[in-house]
Amino acid sequence: MRAGCIPPAGGVLNVTASKWTLILGDLLAMAVVTLIGFATHGTAELSFLPRIAAVFFPLSVSWFLLASPLGLFKQEIVSNPRELWRPAFAMLFAAPFAAVLRGLILAAPIPPVFVVVFATTSAFGMFLRRGLRLLLIRKPH
Q1: 70 within 8 A of 88, measured Cβ to Cβ
Q2: Within-domain flag for 4
Q3: How many independent structural domains does the chain possess?
Q4: What is the per-residue pLDDT across 46-101, written as a single tens digit (0 to 9) for each?
């Protein structure tokens, strides 16, 4: 076990997940949260694909600009359940930046309530995604 990794009760973590698995999983989580957001407004049809892309791509760019420098792809962080706060915290900063990029792309105002909801739901989504990953990679003794 690597230094700094604290195994959860009842199992040892498998730390063999690659960076690419983390990246693809994060992209999938952001896509799901984005689609859920549009679905709650009844706008998840193909005709809204450009607006969906105007949310998803800035969020992805913002996330990866922050995630890597913050160590969110380092095994000693992603394999430690006590570090689950980090991805959610990072998303609280990535989402507002993504909202600004979205506003620039759409040449539209950026409603503060959108930024708050976007940031909190994205942070919650990333917390769930990384938490589920930890549960799935657990190995029994």
Answers
A1: no
A2: no
A3: 1
A4: 889 999 999 999 999 999 999 999 999 998 899 899 999 999 999 999 999 999 99
Buried b (16+ CB within 10 A) or exposed e, 46-73: eeeeeebebbbbbbbebbbebbeebebb
Look-up: residue for tokens 């690419």? 20
Residue 121 lies in a domain: yes
Q: What is the pTM (predicted TM-score) of this model?
A: 0.82
H-type alpha helices, 1-141: 19-40, 49-67, 75-78, 85-106, 112-137
Both tokens of residue 15?
A: 């730390």
Residue 7 lies in a domain: no
Residue that has been written with the tokens 């915290």 in this structure: 89
Domain range for 101 = 12-139
